[in-house]
Amino acid sequence: MASLSNQFRPTNLRMRIRRTNPSISCSKQPPQNNIKVVINSATKNIGRAAIAAVTRARGTEISGAVDKLLIGEDAGKVSGMDEPLEVPILNDLTMVLGSISQSKATGEVVDFTEPSTVFDNVKQAAAFGLRSMVHVPKLELEMVSAPSAFCEKASMGCLVALTLSVGSVLFQQAAISASFHYSNVEIVESRPTPSVSLSIA
């Protein structure tokens, strides 16, 4: 950030006018600490959309992309962005988490993997001091309780979102609110093609 300053001195008509040259001084802005985000399962459609969304969001940056496919490819190019992010897709979550934890930055892992690997991924993220956000379709309630209990003991935050649909979450909140006023509440969401909404890649 640069600031322009000029000193103006009051002058009297009898005094000789003395002009000073304007000066420019630069001050260094404090560095902005962005939240470093790792996308696990980055080549899925939802992972690609998450990469683009995190890149556009203020205060966040993609610092790792993990998947078993397209290893070595740039995460920005895979997600369809105009410019590369210079973040390669790797297949080793531990290595990516280790590099982020060494930078001592605030980190987050967004996990779109399979139900069988969720608990291990949450444990690894917590071991490196990163919080987790998990969205895995067809994740059963028993599989949610284990990461939740682990994160509670580790005093680490973990968000398990069974659905990322805003409408679905609003319907759930409406049902909870209505249950206090009515003895029987049923909210039905209708979709024209149910098969389209169930297939999340």
From TrEMBL:
Ranges of residues in domain Dihydrodipicolinate reductase N-terminal: 35-131
Alphabetic keyword roster: NADP, Oxidoreductase
SUPFAM superfamilies: NAD(P)-binding Rossmann-fold domains
UniProt protein name: 4-hydroxy-tetrahydrodipicolinate reductase 3, chloroplastic
GO cellular component: chloroplast stroma
GO BP of this protein: lysine biosynthetic process via diaminopimelate
Record-level Gene Ontology MF annotations: 4-hydroxy-tetrahydrodipicolinate reductase
Classification via Pfam families: DapB_N
Domain of life of the source: Eukaryota
UniProt lineage: Eukaryota, Viridiplantae, Streptophyta, Embryophyta, Tracheophyta
UniProt-listed InterPro entries: DapB_N, DHDPR_bac, NAD(P)-bd_dom_sf
Protein encoded by which gene: DAPB3
UniProt organism field: Dendrobium catenatum
